[in-house]
Amino acid sequence: MMMARRIQWSVFLLVLLLLMVKTSVWAAESEVGARTITVSATAEIEILPDEASIVIGFSNTSKLMNEAHTITQKRVEAFSATLIKLGFSKSMINYGNILYQPNFIQVKGAFSKLENFSASQALILKLKDFSLIPILIQAAVDGGATNIGEVRFYSTKLSEFKVQLREEAILAAKKKVKQLAEGFGTNLKEVKTINEQMYSSSVSNYSIANSPPPTNFVQSDNSNGQIGTAVTPNTLFLSLTLEVVYFIE
Mean pLDDT over residues 112-141, rounded? Predict the structure, then answer.
């Protein structure tokens, strides 16, 4: 009795498996033999940067680590106070951790000897008023900054622009595929695949040298050290392309 039940279940499972295989093969064959049409649509936009960032670094070296730390900290505090006086808000200033590094020298016999310590700290400054950039760089030089990074221009609204471009690309793809289908006398069915590609020049860098800054930031004539004109960023380019495959009758 038990043997008969086992045989019945085995036969049932075998039939079910054959049906599943047959169904899968039929589905694959039907998709392989299906007619499709592929369209692509691209939406583009040029964006004006609305924010810039720059990294200003301070570093000092001393025989004692605590002295190097104290000097670096005082210069950072003095620079921060200068920025506040110039109109920078505290929310525009982000402080990195103070980093310490022991410095060694080679002595006779290829032995390394501890010579001194370096303490460094970086500040990341973000600003929306680009006219403050030359003033910021000059203040950094006057405050004893040892490193001035690139000015990075970018948009804080990229996600909003991407949504806008996607909507435009979808409408363009629908319009194009409808025109093609009507032109060739066929009817559209459901979408098979959608592929999206995004290109973005989301950051525009303005390279500047380390201290001292280039002459275009500070006038070199008899202007009593007045700050030069503000840096003008390039526009940012954003592009979104959709490739859509439709089944057709």
Answer: 92
